[in-house]
Amino acid sequence: MKKPNHIFLTLLLVFVTSLAFSQEKSIIDQLEEVAIVDQKVMMPMRDGVRLATDIYRPKGEGKYPIVFSRTPYNFNTWGNGELNTRTMQTALSWVEKGYAYVVQNERGRYFSEGDWDILGVPLTDGYDAFEWMSKQNWSNGKIGTLGCSSTAEWQMAVASLDHPALAALVPQGYGAGVGRVGEFNEQGNWYRGGAGQMLFTNWLYGVQQDPMAPRLPKGIEQKDLLRLQRFYDMSPEYPRIDSKEALAHLPIQDIIRNQNGPMGIYEEMITRKPNDAKWFEGGLYHDDMPFDKPSFWFVSWFDVSAGPNIALFNHARENAVSQIARDNQYLVIAPVLHCSYTRASENTMVGDLNVGDARLNYDEIITAWFDVWLKGEKSEVMEEMPRVQYYTMGANKWQTSDVWPPAEAVMTTMYLDSEGKANTLNGNGKLTSKKPKKDQPDTFKYDPMNPVTSFGGNVCCTGNAIDGNGGSKDQSEMEKREDILVYTSDVLEEGIEVSGFIESYLYLSSDAKDTDVTIKLIDVYPDGKAYNLDETIQRVRYREGYDKEVWMEDGEVYEVKMTPMSTSNYFDKGHRIRIEVSSSNFPRFDRNMNTGGNTYDETEGIVATNSIHHGGKSLSRIVLPIVKK
After folding, report:
1. What is the mean pLDDT of the chain?
2. Most buried residue among 334, 405, 557, 572 by CB atoms closer than 10 A?
3. Nearest to 205 by CA among 255, 279, 250
4. Is the pLDDT reported for residue 126 higher than 90?
5. Is the pLDDT of residue 18 over 50?
6. Cα–Cα–Cα angle for 534, 313, 119, nearest 5°?
């Protein structure tokens, strides 16, 4: 009898579980219970172009604050005949909290009319959207912007127009919208130190919309769009490519064309120099633009743009027009990859490095922020919110500060030194607190046809092009290359916390008229594993500014100030601090052909003999923000 009873109970459990599952409400049913859903609203801009917009708002006659997300990405409800529920899940969450949730495609993207221009979408589109939404009879006149990456990059520049309805911002991973701030002149992650970042080359292959692609007729009615969206999502499917092979093609300007990819803005953008006037015409925020909006900034240590993102937080806090805006800038810095905040776990892996429990309740933080600024409610969460929350790797813990870098950080200089053979990790390069008296330069040959390959790092959007993808990876095998100079400190007798911007000054001579200098900051563990923390590059022709190109002369020694690196890391007792110096980090950055040419149209380079000097008047060094507690 026991066996039949066991079978019966099992079947009953399966039946009850299946019945419960069948009775679960679909996301559409859940939305229809609490929300008015109005999809494919064609919002008019001042020039007559209409932008496709989906609106989800609470049922009833009330007036509601708006959480607004504008994006170049596809949020269509249907794809390949199936429901895409991600946007609806987000909408449901906000509607249940008493907000209207509005998501809109940039002009020229999917069902939106007009022509698309990455980093160059007219600022007036954002302003006109605020104007339209704030005048709807269901709006309370308060709008907050929310998004990560390309869904965040437009927020800052539009905020400079100071529309009264824009009450607060939540930009996340927003480096693609930072044109110039302080020492960072990246023009939306297109450059770093004047060298090209190749992420956009790869990203645009799959995102760039060919002007010859079929488009819907202008003026199409909403009822027709609602029907069409069920089987036609306007999202072209490009053939997959080997990104590593694709990015190796020369000249750079032909990479997408060589893959038979879409025509578009890339071929024009790749020809722009770092100070080209066109960078200042579109949607990038530059530090000479006004800013006067409360903002909660979210940054990650292993994003492509942690440095400029943090610098923009500081800029807004110090230079916002009003005191109320200056007093309401907040910052979170997480130890994750680009836009991977919510993927942190009890054992967060960033590359091959376990940085511990890096979870944070982002939903609670963002909701509390909008409750204050869009609803006018008091919030205990915000009242107790520290100005800066940052995660210190190595110690593997969240910390707080009122400023960045922390007030306790003391800028401490460490000098590069060697006996003239710092090549490879087996060389005699060292990092020391003592000034070297004698200059014994370290020399290596940089061949652009055999560059140092990127391995992990602070990257985004490069597909399979970068070995190990992003994050922290053991660099010790890479450090066996002769064209990598390695400088390592003595074993630390006590732990050191480094939190803030890391300054680097390298003295270079070369037999080429132009070349690049690269640097990495590394935490060396007792077992010899060398985990990268941040990296940067400088194209030497721009060492005197991005508005001019100045060539080198053979035999001369030049000071090269690097774009700052950024981190918060605890170098534990028994660890060592290391930096690597070379002239390439490819394909994270494009290759300098060492000729003084345009780079983007070159197919052949020359080998450069480069030397790093340290000693006497040529004190190559790094300056670390060491936190004294």
Report:
1. 93
2. 334
3. 255
4. yes
5. no
6. 80
CA dihedral (99, 105, 111, 115) in degrees, to 10, reads: 150
> Can you tell me the distance from the alpha carbon of 306 to that of 387, in angstroms, rounded to the nearest whole number?
17
Distance CA 54, CA 66 (A): 12
pTM of the shown model = 0.94
Percent over 90 (pLDDT), the chain: 87
Residue 8 has pLDDT above 80, yes or no: no
Contact assessment for residue 203 and residue 181, using Cβ atoms and an 8 Å cutoff: no
- Would you say 304 and 288 are in contact if contact means Cβ atoms under 8 Å apart? no
Decide: 275 and 179 in contact? Cβ < 8 Å.
Answer: no
Asked if 504 and 542 touch (Cβ cutoff 8 Å), the reply is: no
pLDDT digits (tens, 9 = 90+) for 314-371: 999 999 999 999 999 999 999 999 999 999 999 999 999 999 999 999 999 999 999 9
Given this model, what pLDDT does residue 549 score?
97
In the chain, the amino acid numbered 347 is: N
Most confident of 12-16, 43-47, 214-218: 43-47
Q: How far is CA 483 from CA 191, 227, 355, 425, in A?
A: 23, 59, 30, 11
Q: What is the distance between the alpha carbons of residues 291 and 353, in angstroms, rounded to a whole number? A: 37
Strand order of the β-sheet with 397-401 is 35-44, 50-58, 100-105, 64-71, 139-148, 166-172, 295-302, 329-337, 388-392, 397-401
What's the pLDDT tens digit per position in 163-213?
Answer: 999 999 999 999 999 999 999 999 999 999 999 999 999 999 988 888 888
C-alpha atoms less than 13 angstroms from C-alpha of 84 in its C-beta half-sphere: 14
User: To the nearest whole percent, how much of the chain has pLDDT over 70?
Assistant: 96
- Phi/psi at 209 (5° precision): -100, 115
Please report the pLDDT score of residue 628 as a whole number: 87
In what helix (H) or strand (E) does residue 322 lie, and over which residues does it extend? Answer: none
Q: For Cα atoms 279, 284, 286, give the angle at the middle one, nearest 5 degrees.
A: 90
Of 430, 431, 480, the closest CA to residue 624 belongs to 431
Token representation of residue 622: 């790094």
419 close to 440: Cβ distance less than 8 angstroms: yes
Cis peptide before 4 (omega within 30 of 0): no
Q: H/E element holding 353?
A: strand 353-354
Q: Are 250 and 603 in contact (CB under 8 A)?
A: yes
Tracing tokens 């060697």 back to the chain, one arrives at 418
Smallest CA-to-CA distance from 304 within 517, 461, 468, 445 is with 461
Calculate Rg over the CA atoms of the chain: 26
Amino acid 176 reads A
